[in-house]
Design the sequence.
């Protein structure tokens, strides 16, 4: 007795879908994960929440499931629960294997099964080369039914190109300057202004945010105390807000390979007669690169390496517990592209917890040979979900480091990136 027929798709091909409960996997001979984008008929997400991935695993009708019990990464779909204003669900596979591209790891195969695990369709992507990330499939509406289309569109620039193309941003972000004038609300952080219209962001580059003049003037305060200090081997310096250091060691030798260590402690909350307990706080460190006032690249928990490999995020700490650095970003100053002139180090609260629940936030600059060179520490208590810790920037043919320490409202790196314009 023959089993059910499996639909074999080629690029651009489509097929009807007769069941709403589905599971999608992508077989690839390398470390890779899967994610999903819920897009409108314009091909854009409605909000950041429509990007479903391992650190934001739930969306309406879509769940990202990590490997377990011998099963690979999966996207589970309940198409009946997908909102009516979502036209399509796109399935994405991204490599995370020491900079390898799809052309080096063989042909990935996307597979679709029904809720019982019975194979429904498969699609082998045969023409990938330098791509780091690929939109494999999409489930799209056709009248009152759903259909499946083989896409196989890759992006050489990885996650940064993908989310730019799909408009991953917070729709309400352009309205932030208007909220600043509301008397009852607490004053927004200085960096709440969006980037200048001419600098596209990871959001919707075709729709420039309104350019209110007052907010950009506010961030002028942080650099007020911009005293510059020197680095000396074996004598780490403690920076205050706004201070700068030139990234040269004794004798004028320029630093080449540094690490940015970021850390924090969750506050201890009282819990009655049995003492106190620590509250887990999921903070995420990110490196956000700008070139000529425009967003160029990012390294964060879902995109651990910049396209050129100069900056690498070493992994995510979900609680802040433990001693020392909670997250580390390595920076090879010699490999940063010449057009990149600023690198921001930002911490955001994925679950929306504010820094009122965090103590002892710090960042420290570490040389790969001489150890810690500089440290910038902040007390907790700020009612913000994001924190611009510091930046590296080019000046006079070299690099400088400046402590910033300003709060913003941002749960995701993509939200934070839109608020960095005044600090460029």
Sequence:
């Amino acid at each position: 007795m023959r089993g059910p027929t499996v639909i074999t798709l080629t690029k651009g091909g489509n097929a009807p879908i007769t069941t709403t409960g589905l599971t999608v996997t992508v077989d690839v001979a390398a470390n890779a994960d899967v994610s999903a984008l819920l897009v409108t008929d314009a091909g854009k997400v409605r909000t950041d929440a429509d990007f479903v991935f391992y650190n934001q695993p739930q969306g309406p009708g879509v769940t990202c499931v990590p490997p377990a019990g011998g099963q690979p990464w999966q996207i589970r779909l309940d198409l009946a629960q997908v909102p009516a204003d979502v036209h399509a669900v796109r399935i994405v596979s991204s490599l995370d294997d020491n900079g390898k591209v799809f052309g080096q790891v063989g042909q990935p195969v996307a597979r679709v099964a029904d809720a019982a695990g019975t194979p429904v369709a498969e699609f082998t992507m045969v023409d990938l080369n330098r791509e780091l990330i690929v939109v494999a499939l999409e489930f799209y509406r056709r009248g009152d039914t759903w259909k499946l289309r083989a896409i196989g569109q890759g992006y050489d620039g990885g996650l940064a190109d993908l989310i730019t193309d799909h408009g991953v941003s917070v729709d309400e972000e352009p309205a932030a300057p208007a909220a600043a004038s509301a008397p009852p609300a607490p004053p927004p952080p200085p960096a709440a202004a969006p980037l200048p219209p001419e600098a596209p962001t990871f959001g919707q580059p075709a729709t420039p945010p309104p350019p209110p003049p007052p907010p950009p003037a506010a961030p002028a305060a942080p650099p007020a105390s911009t005293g510059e200090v020197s680095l000396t081997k074996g004598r780490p310096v403690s920076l205050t807000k706004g201070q700068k250091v030139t990234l040269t060691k004794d004798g004028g030798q320029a630093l080449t390979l540094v690490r940015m260590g970021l850390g924090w402690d969750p506050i201890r909350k009282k819990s009655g007669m049995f003492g106190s307990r620590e509250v887990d706080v999921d903070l995420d460190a990110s490196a956000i690169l700008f070139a000529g006032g425009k967003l160029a690249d990012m390294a964060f928990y879902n995109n651990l390496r910049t396209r050129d490999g100069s900056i690498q995020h070493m992994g995510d700490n979900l609680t802040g517990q433990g001693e020392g650095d909670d997250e580390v970003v390595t920076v090879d100053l010699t490999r940063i592209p010449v057009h990149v002139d600023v690198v921001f180090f930002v911490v955001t609260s994925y679950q929306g917890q504010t820094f009122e629940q965090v103590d002892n936030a710090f960042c420290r600059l570490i040389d790969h040979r001489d150890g810690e060179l500089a440290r910038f520490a902040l007390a907790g208590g700020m009612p913000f979900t994001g924190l611009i810790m510091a930046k590296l920037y080019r000046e006079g043919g070299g690099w400088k480091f400046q402590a910033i320490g300003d709060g913003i409202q941002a749960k995701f790196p993509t939200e934070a990136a839109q608020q960095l314009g005044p600090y460029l």
